[in-house]
Design brief:
single chain; 11 helices
């Protein structure tokens, strides 16, 4: 039985802007609504390794092993900084009539997926979050956590789609302003860099 408390808490967690939301919104603004679907899929499927790791107990390794945590963490930091650098370097005015190098939709999804896969904090989050909503009398806690994790993923996908769709709606207004386009690209680049720095300064306990 899925509790109302779990659904409400999950919705609040998913709605809080993070790397996934930032990536999906930037994709909607600069690549359009179709790319948003792929970005949302990528970010959502990037949750799977963390969810499975927490359920199978691998999260405990990340939580107790400083080396394992640091390796995954700095791989994630490097990737976020790479995204920031790429976006900053390619900052330029956009136009609907311009066909710049079309980005593969698979590439859009893979980028979103990697952002979550390379975030060790996500694994630890699931380890702390899911067990709280498993009934004490549950005959199969593992099955319960898989169900809760799947619901969390579905909510994530829907919320990311909404964020991306809203961004795509204002895309026409954004790309018609050269100053706004360049400014937003640099803002997103700076935001990815800031998130990378935040991850670099984090430890296993926060």
């Amino acid at each position: 039985m899925v509790s109302v408390e779990f659904l409400i808490t999950s919705l609040v967690v998913v709605l809080i802007p993070g790397t996934g939301v930032l990536y999906t919104v930037s994709t909607g603004l600069f690549l359009g609504s179709r790319a948003t679907v792929w970005a949302s899929l990528g970010c959502t499927f990037g949750i799977v390794p963390s969810m499975l790791a927490s359920i199978t107990g691998l999260a405990i390794i990340l939580h107790t092993s400083a080396i394992a945590f640091q390796v995954v963490k700095y791989a994630g930091v490097a990737y976020l900084l790479y995204l920031a650098w790429s976006m900053w370097r390619s900052s330029s005015a956009l136009s609907l009539s311009e066909e710049k190098e079309p980005m593969s939709m698979v590439s859009v999804a893979v980028k979103g997926c990697l952002m979550n896969v390379l975030n060790p904090k996500l694994t630890i989050f699931f380890m702390a979050f899911l067990p709280q909503f498993v009934p004490a009398q549950a005959t199969s806690p593992t099955s319960n956590m898989l169900l809760l994790g799947s619901i969390f993923m579905a909510m994530t996908f829907v919320v990311f789609l909404i964020y991306g769709a809203l961004a795509a709606l204002v895309r026409d207004h954004v790309i018609n302003s050269e100053r706004l386009t360049v400014g937003l690209q640099k803002l997103f680049a700076g935001s990815f860099a800031a998130l990378g720095l935040k991850l670099a300064l984090s430890d296993r306990s926060n």
